[in-house]
Specification:
Blueprint: E1 2-6, H1 10-22, E2 27-32, H2 37-46, H3 49-52, E3 57-62, E4 73-76, H4 92-109, E5 114-117, H5 122-132, E6 140-142, H6 145-160, E7 167-168, E8 171-173, E9 180-182, E10 188-189, E11 192-193, H7 200-211, H8 213-221, H9 227-241, E12 246-255, E13 261-272, E14 275-279, H10 286-303
Parallel strand pairs: 1-2, 1-4, 2-3, 4-5, 5-6
Antiparallel strand pairs: 7-10, 8-9, 10-11, 12-13, 13-14
Helix pairs in contact: 1-9, 4-5, 5-10, 6-7, 6-9
Bound molecules: nicotinamide-adenine-dinucleotide and (2S)-2-hydroxybutanedioic acid.
Length: 310
């Protein structure tokens, strides 16, 4: 199993590290435009192999896509991250051109690859990859909901004063400060609704903290987060590489599901060797449906900023 990660920055390198530690891939190629940067990250990571006990070969390359040839999965993390005070949507101008050219270079050398889009604004970048390539829709996946759900579980575990492994919960909708829809009604602690343990006000606070999870960390770090994003991407890569048939909320092209059309937005999907093998339609209540619709309107507004004729 060969995996390419475009962008050897914070998220790309973190993702490569978690993939290697999980030891399910034969090769990870890290590629970046900065001279020697990906090679340096790859060498540094390879020097952890004997310490951490993995066999995955990590290779670095400065913009030489021949090294990525015949990748099974390609992850796009290239582009700029936001600074404190910015929204993800403000990155569209620079990142759209990068994502478009990178996806074309990936497919030139790996026409059968499944692409996971990470660069922000992620739902719109995922839509752009659909619009600018001929890949079938199951092979283009946006990563956002897996991270947002991990943050939701973290906030729930804080509120319930229990380990994160004791709680379950999911965030659907757009990967934006206002567009996320944490499904608080469906969140559980060992199958018991979390509303049994915390007040409605506290649960509302958990949802609000989850939605601004990325902005909170960006303010603290001066740039956006990378450990949880890298871990979330590695989980999606593993689900596809190992044909796990696991369910994650991912940004998927919708064609009528949830009453939505012609956009990519976070919904639960089953991931396996064929990428998105199924879109799971949840029975949402009226309030949740209204939030998802509003979120979709926001994503569409950002999509409308793309120049798809370029
Ligand atoms: N979807 C999510 O949940 C999520 C989570 C975290 C970050 N992100 C996004 O991921 C992106 C990367 O974040 P980061 O923190 O790793 O940034 P970073 O600046 O640390 O790394 C980005 C890397 O991309 C490289 N790059 C730029 N143009 C390139 C090109 N044409 N080809 C190859 N490489 C190129 C840069 O040289 C840099 O090394 C940002 O857009 C950020 O907003 C998304
Ligand atoms: O917050 C960001 O800009 C990066 C990423 O989308 C995140 O949620 O961490």
């Amino acid at each position: 199993m060969k995996i390419t990660i475009v962008g050897a920055g914070a998220v790309g390198a973190s993702c490569a590290e978690y993939i290697a530690i999980k030891n399910f891939a034969s090769e990870v190629v890290l590629i970046d435009i900065k001279e020697d940067y990906a090679e340096g990250k790859a060498m540094d990571l390879m020097q952890t192999a004997s310490l951490l006990g993995f066999d995955t070969r990590i290779v670095g390359s400065t913009n030489d896509y021949s090294k990525t040839a015949n990748s099974d999965i390609a992850v796009i993390t290239s582009g700029i991250p936001r600074k404190p005070g910015m929204t993800r949507e403000e990155l569209i101008g620079i990142n759209a051109d990068i994502v478009k050219s990178v996806s074309s270079s990936i497919l030139e050398h790996s026409p059968n690859a499944t692409i996971i889009v990470v660069s922000n604004p992620m739902d719109t970048m995922t839509y752009l990859v659909h619009k600018s390539t001929n890949l079938p829709k199951n092979k283009i996946i946006g990563m956002g909901g897996a991270l947002d759900s991990a943050r939701f579980k973290y906030r729930l575990s804080e509120a319930l004063e229990c380990p994160a492994s004791d709680v379950d919960g999911m965030v659907i909708g757009g990967h934006s400060d206002t567009g996320m829809v944490p499904l608080a009604r469906l969140a559980t602690r060992n199958s018991v609704p979390v509303s049994k343990f915390i007040s409605e006000e506290r649960l509302d606070q958990v949802s609000e903290d989850t939605k601004v999870g990325g902005a909170t960390l960006t303010k603290m770090l001066g740039t956006s987060a990378w450990y949880a994003p890298g871990a979330a991407v590695s989980s999606l890569v593993q689900a596809i590489a190992c044909d796990q048939k696991k369910m994650f909320p991912c940004s998927a092209l919708l064609e009528g599901e949830y009453g939505l059309n012609d956009l990519c937005i976070g919904v639960p999907v089953i991931l396996g060797e064929n990428g998105i093998e199924e879109i799971v339609e949840l029975e949402l209540n009226d309030a949740e449906k209204a939030k998802l619709k509003e979120s979709a309107e926001g994503v569409t507004k950002t999509n409308d900023l793309l120049d798809l004729k370029k």
